[in-house]
Amino acid sequence: MESNCFLSTLKFVAMFTLLLNSNRRNYPAVDAASPARSNSCYDEYGRPQMCLPEFHNLAYGKRIFASHSCGEPPRRFCRKDLRGQTCDICDSSKPSKAHPVEFLTDLHNQNNVTCWQADRKQSRENVTLILSLGKTFDITYISLQFCGTRPDSMVIYKSLDFGKSWRPYQFYSSSCSKVYGRPKKALAPRENEQEALCTDAHLITPLQGGRIAFSTLEGRPSAKDIDSSLVLQEWVSATDIKVVFNRISSTRTRAVHQYYAVSDLAVGGRCQCNGHASSCPINRDGRAVCDCKHHTAGNNCEQCKAFFNDRPWRLATENSANECVACNCNLHARACVFNMELFKLSGGASGGVCIHCRHNTAGRYCSYCKQGFYKDPTKDITHRKVCKLCNCHPYGSMGKICDQTTGQCPCKDGVTGRQCDKCAEGYKNTKSPIVPCVSK
Prior knowledge:
The protein is mainly β. The protein has four helices and 24 strands. 7% of the residues lie in helices and 26% in strands. The protein is rod-shaped and about 130 Å long. The protein starts with 8 loop residues before the first helix and ends with a strand. The model is unreliable at 1-37 and 252-256 (pLDDT under 50).
């Protein structure tokens, strides 16, 4: 989640101008902050580097929940434009008269504008639209193109837990303090950069039609340093977006043509993969999942994959891919765990601890033989038969544990041989399990 993933205010305005002029709902993958960046996770020499999925409109083709839609039952509505007032019927049972929520995310064509429309009598306040993204995304902007009266008061919310809880992103109102109990502000304080601001800038003349656009980083003091700001990294992250229209007009007189109608809901952003994936394909469940590289794993590449735990997981940056590193288990283990204390003691060199060492090996790196075995000097430590059984003689030795380097068993008095299976010179065999060899 790097600074080049998102847009400063000036770059956002430049890119958003392109979006306003686009006739396609699936907006071009424009990232003005990093125009020359490769999306490959490895450079031409095969070295890992930070990579990012494409920037695109996350709302395109998605299903949206709407709390109120016109047409059930059929109802007459009227609108005013430059030609005067025109009236029609909203009827969900007739395709030519329907204004369903699917029109918010269908193909946008300026020559054939389709509009979702709320029921004008049942939904003057608290109309809700919810877009579920299915995973965590890094959000750059949220915009709504209206084909009716722009609301006087509305709120954009985000969720980071798939709709279980919601936090406000931005408030819009002609009276921020009266409606939402918040001051009208354009900038968030540096000590609270996740503060949701309130503005009346959306109430420009004329009130019919137009677009309301919200940039996640606009007005945030640390926007240019988002790569080092955990606060802003969390601020731009979302799994779900919610828009609530709270008040359609600031006046008590509600004209017949006042109702919520939106032709386009766009959410610009990219799959959150923490710099470890360049694509985010749809899986069998219909959800986007990062195609993780750099030995990372998880829906957002937020952890190291199994056995690549020799150092802690880190976000990829421009300076380092921070790829996960395999544990050194000398080919004798298939799993390892990370230990921060050992990592610190090593000076940041290694923190992996091998578990379930095989082939009779033991130790943090499976680098020596377990008790009762010794290392074969003719074989490399990675050889599956590097550890040989001590095979100490039950009568001649004082135990089953031999020297791990030489394989020498601990012999009783008068006994010799690596396995303690012979009487020393000047001793004779008694065949006794207690005193196997005595002086002649």
